[in-house]
Amino acid sequence: MKRSELRQVIREEYRRAINEASEIEFSELPRDKQKSAQEMMKVFRASKPDQVFEGIQGFIITFTGKVPGADGVRLNDKDLKALANNKDFRWIDIYSNTKFAIGL
Predict the structure, then answer these.
(1) Whether the Cβ atoms of residue 63 and residue 44 lie closer than 8 Å to each other
(2) For residue 1, is it within any domain?
(3) Cα dihedral sign for 60, 62, 65, 71?
(4) Which of 6, 12, 44, 77 has the most other CB atoms within 10 Å of its CB?
(5) How far apart, in whole angstroms, are the C-alpha atoms of residue 28 and residue 52?
């Protein structure tokens, strides 16, 4: 490989790394990630994902639902077990009483 070709490859990889995540359709998620996301949607009483992103750190899915602690919504023992037993669940960001995102 020529030096100029190597530079071009490095530039392209660098640009790709800078773009942290790309939006995709829910149906484009691997089946196991779809199932994990659907389990999370049940816990947080969300009907469907708002946005799905695929990035270098995994998948990010945003929802509109009922965030625990908002309007008297609580997580019960079954909800907590569902979170703890979901092998793909990594983190959750809560933006408001109804908006949140999960990392898979």
Answers:
(1) yes
(2) no
(3) positive
(4) 44
(5) 9
Residue 42 lies in a domain: yes
Look at strands 99-103 and 49-55 and give their pairing: unpaired
User: Token pair 């109804």 is at which residue?
Assistant: 98
- Domain hosting 38: range is 21-103
Distances (CA, A) of 64 to 12, 19, 61, 96: 35, 25, 10, 9
**Which residue matches tokens 């909800």?**
79
Gap between the Cα atoms of 93 and 27, Å rounded: 22
DSSP-derived secondary structure for 10-42: HHHHHHHHHS-EEEE-GGGS-HHHHHHHHHHHH
Tokens, residue 24:
């995709």
Radius of gyration of the chain (CA): 18
pLDDT digits (tens, 9 = 90+) for 43-81: 878 888 999 998 878 899 998 877 665 666 677 888 888
